[in-house]
What we know:
Distance between the termini: 73 Å
Number of strands: 7
Radius of gyration: 20 Å
Structural class: alpha+beta
Number of helices: 2
Number of domains: 1
Amino acid sequence: MKSFIFFLLLFIAFLSACKSSPKSPEIVKKDSILKTVSYIDLNTTTKLTGALHVPLGTIVKLKCEIIDGDKTEIKQNMGLWLMKILEIDGAKADDNIILNFTHLTEDFTHNKSDEEKNSLIKENKILELIAYETGEFTGLPENYMNYTETRATTNFYFKTSLVVITTGFK
């Protein structure tokens, strides 16, 4: 009987740990209080900062390492090249800033299957570049499935990515 109760408590603890983990790898809650901000405030009185710890849209010099998204074991990163940020404007970056990216001149792409455009991209290659961080909402809002068929996707959340302006410093 004691072993049954022990395993029951262990099972309950396991279930509660599974429930409390975030549903999207990019969602990190600092506290449980949500603040409502008008989109107008984002253009006038409020600056939104991203993973680089500077306001979104701020041009920075970066030193990045190319990493294989398949190795992150996150489904949304599969088949992509990602950038691990090593330095931001010459200062060492936090250890775990990994971002998806686009390139304005399309000299290279994050899509691993586009080999023609990816001569600059190789795993573990270090690039120096000029870029800015941008953001967007993705996924489906809560209760979306009440109005239409089920789809395989993530919950509704905000994510950021890099926009590469140029490689190398001027």
